[in-house]
Design goal:
By secondary structure, this protein is α+β, with helices and mostly antiparallel strands. The protein contains 1 helix and 3 strands; from the N terminus they run βββα. It has one helix spanning 47-71, and strands at 4-10, 18-24, 29-33. A hairpin with a 7-residue loop joins β1 (4-10) and β2. It is elongated.
Length: 73
């Protein structure tokens, strides 16, 4: 079963997008523009929203590595 962590992020600078980041346990990602309903790619992120994405992705990778280490220890 694939679990998902949802995070909402509202940009502080133009274009002031309201984004939902969905990080799935299998490593996939969905970024949804809550105002327009469309999806956003990581390449379209800038400034604070890009920094948020990178920090959450790094945290996911660290947690995944720790879980693998504990599983095989």
């Amino acid at each position: 079963m694939r679990s998902c962590e949802n995070f909402r992020f509202i940009e502080k600078h133009r274009p002031y997008r309201d984004l939902t980041f969905k990080f799935y346990s299998d490593g996939t990602l969905a970024i949804i523009d809550n105002d327009g309903g469309g999806t956003v790619t990581p390449r379209e992120l800038k400034g604070d929203s890009h920094d948020f994405y990178v920090r959450r992705r790094i945290a996911f990778i660290k947690n995944n590595l720790l879980a693998q280490k504990l599983k095989h220890a």
